[in-house]
Design goal:
By secondary structure, the protein is mainly α. The chain has a domain at 13-98 and 161-179 and 188-250. The protein contains twelve helices and two strands, in the order H-H-H-H-H-E-E-H-H-H-H-H-H-H.
Length: 256
């Protein structure tokens, strides 16, 4: 199977199709996307093995979101049944958990690389009157550690971004799915980067707009209650682009 190369205008198309799915099933789309994001956050916050546990859930949660977006795009309500179906299938369950193990490996490497590389700079941060001295943070920010961490994390995302769908819908082995996911992302790096910049820009603009509006109206104390639903919506928008990306790069569910 050969992945396709998206065009420069594809990010706009992915966003437009994501918005279309949300418009057809707004509550269902918000439900599955926030459930996935919340579950990953809760599992990742667990002591000791939180990151690993969250990584093992990632492939199943990704399939919930991408299949839910497909259902919404077809005019149906997103359902959680795929989680049960995947856990019941021993072959797919095993493969998806191994995809999660690959993701966990990248997360752990990124985490420990940052700790190892940043320890000298972080040790020079100062606490004054019980508060972190930001001048010392800026003067000793671990840029090298941060850059290496981001690169390793990005490689892990590339290797596992489409792997759950390749396992589930293309019946690929773990190694093959990771390979095709990585090079599918690599071949489309420009379109994906443009998409990330657009989503980041929309998020920052929305946050600033709400904060400025609330301050001008004297509603600063309640801005969090306005920002929260907007954050839920923008999170849903971001996740809703995975299905259109999949269709553009790898084709529909059953096509090779």
């Amino acid at each position: 199977m050969q992945g396709h190369i998206a065009s420069f205008s594809s990010p706009v198309k992915w966003l437009r199709e994501g918005f279309h799915a949300i418009r057809l099933a707004p509550f269902g789309m918000v439900s599955i996307c926030i459930f996935y994001a919340f579950t990953m956050s809760v599992l990742g916050a667990l002591p000791m093995l939180g990151l690993v546990i969250a990584a093992f859930f990632m492939p199943f949660g990704t399939m919930l979101v991408i299949d839910g977006t497909r259902q919404a795009s077809e005019g149906r309500q997103p359902a959680y049944g795929i989680l049960i179906d995947l856990f019941k299938d021993p072959v797919k369950r095993s493969r998806l958990m191994r995809v999660g193990a690959v993701y966990a490996l990248f997360l752990l490497i990124a985490n420990y690389l940052y700790i190892f590389m940043a320890v000298d700079e972080v040790s020079q941060w100062k606490v004054v009157d019980g508060r972190l001295d930001w001048a010392s943070v800026y003067a000793n920010f671990p840029w090298s550690a941060a850059i290496v961490t981001v690169v390793v994390y990005a490689l892990g995302q590339m290797a596992t971004w489409f792997a759950p769908a390749l396992v589930t819908w293309k019946n690929m082995t773990v190694g093959k799915s990771v390979f095709y996911s990585f090079f599918g992302c690599l071949r489309n790096w420009l379109a994906i980067l443009v998409l990330l910049f657009i989503i980041f820009g929309i998020t920052v603009a929305a946050a600033f707009a709400v904060i400025i509006l609330c301050d001008s109206l004297g509603l600063g104390d309640v801005s969090i209650f306005i920002l929260t639903p907007i954050a839920f919506f923008l999170t849903t928008v971001a996740y809703s682009t995975i299905w259109p990306m999949w269709v553009d790069i790898f084709g529909d569910v059953n096509s090779d």
